[in-house]
Write a structure and sequence with these properties.
Blueprint (H helix, E strand, L loop, with lengths): L1 H7 L11 H25 L6 E2 L1 H4 L1 E7 L5 H10 L5 E6 L2 E6 L4 H15 L7 E5 L1 H29 L2 H25 L2 E2 L1 H29 L10 H34 L9 H30 L3 H12 L3 H10 L1
Parallel strand pairs: 1-6
Antiparallel strand pairs: 2-4, 2-5, 3-4
Helix pairs in contact: 2-7, 2-10, 6-7, 6-8, 7-8, 7-10, 8-9, 8-10, 9-10, 9-12, 11-12
Length: 333
């Protein structure tokens, strides 16, 4: 608590902006690692950078109750009926098995085999067939929604703050989405409509954190003038330190319940359908907190330092040996 109070009062100065090269390097590594995962995934998932669920690529889904069955037995049942690809998932005593698109006769054969192997009535084996065209329509609408969202955010931030803040926030958003997608690619987690909801939630959460920081930066830097004793870099870094505890507390409170769903719900309670949403939220919240502090703000400072007004302040302080100018010079070097 003592450390938190000191950070909030500005008694501890963490030089986030001055270490921008470190953050840029770390982000570059994470982005390259994520892109490598998606490229690798394309060789495994028939050209798709992610493991798309049946809702997107089409297929058949069988749902039935078999408390004593094992995953090997379930796979064997489907393989014996000529199914080439089956993905069994369990939630409690109920199984959900996704397969490639099957003909009506093959669906009937599999249904009868399930009923015989696990002693369940045929009418209690739920079957759902999804065409690839439906998944394509969902994907198209998701991309349209993402584009509209990005445009709305750019317009709002440009009016509420300024275009350079909007640009920094959008870059941080794309950064968060790519890294989260990379985690999905490397982990092999299935992408479902619930995953898309998680991605959309990431957008809002990441922006919330960035807006809080930018609002403080706008307030602090508005006081900078020709006689200012601080450069834009120092003023922005001070604003970032004042919002640090708020950002960390908000992130921690949001991450804890999501972590409970991801690590406890999916492993102990068998809530398999929740992992699609919770993994996206967990990774996105962690990366979003990092990007708002270490990507969006340093990028904003990099853009603002090119303005003549702030260059003049930096030159004046450099000529007088000002502390802020030294920090700016160190950051550029």
């Amino acid at each position: 608590m003592g450390l938190g109070r000191r950070l909030y009062r500005g008694e501890i100065d963490v030089d986030f902006v001055g270490r921008r090269k470190l953050w840029y390097g770390l982000s570059a590594f994470l982005l390259l690692f994520s892109l490598a995962g998606m490229i690798f995934s394309m060789s495994v998932n028939n050209g798709s950078p992610l493991n798309l669920g049946v809702e997107f690529k089409g297929g058949s889904v069988f749902s039935f109750k078999a408390p004593t069955a094992t995953i090997e037995e379930v796979r064997a049942t489907f393989k014996d009926e000529g199914v080439h690809e089956s993905i069994p998932q369990t939630a409690g005593d109920r199984w959900r098995v996704t397969t490639e698109t099957l003909t009506e006769s093959n669906v009937t054969k599999v249904q009868k085999a399930i009923a015989a192997d696990y002693k369940v009535p045929e009418n209690q084996v739920d079957i759902q067939s999804i065409g690839a065209s439906w998944g394509g329509e969902v994907s198209q609408k998701a991309w349209i929604g993402l584009g509209v969202f990005m445009l709305a955010i750019i317009l709002y931030l440009s009016m509420a703050f300024e275009p350079k803040m909007a640009l920094a926030a959008i870059v941080a958003l794309v950064h968060d989405l790519v890294i989260t997608a990379g985690v999905y690619a490397w982990s092999g987690f299935e992408v479902t409509p619930a995953t898309l909801l998680g991605f959309l939630t990431i957008l809002g959460y990441s922006l919330y954190d960035a807006v809080v920081v930018f609002d403080m930066i706008k307030e602090v830097t508005a006081k900078l003038g020709t006689t200012s004793k601080k450069t834009y870099t120092q003023a922005a870094n001070d604003a970032l330190n004042h919002t640090l505890i708020r950002s960390l507390n908000t992130s921690l409170v949001a991450i804890l319940p999501v972590a409970a769903i991801l690590f406890i719900g999916t492993t102990l309670l068998g809530a398999g359908t929740l992992k699609d949403l919770s993994l996206a939220l967990f990774v996105g919240m962690v990366v979003g907190t990092y990007s708002s502090l270490c990507v969006a703000t340093p990028l904003l400072v990099t853009l603002k330092e090119r303005e003549p007004k702030y260059q003049a302040i930096a030159r004046r302080l450099a000529s007088t040996g000002g502390k802020g100018a030294k920090r700016t010079a160190a950051a550029k070097g």
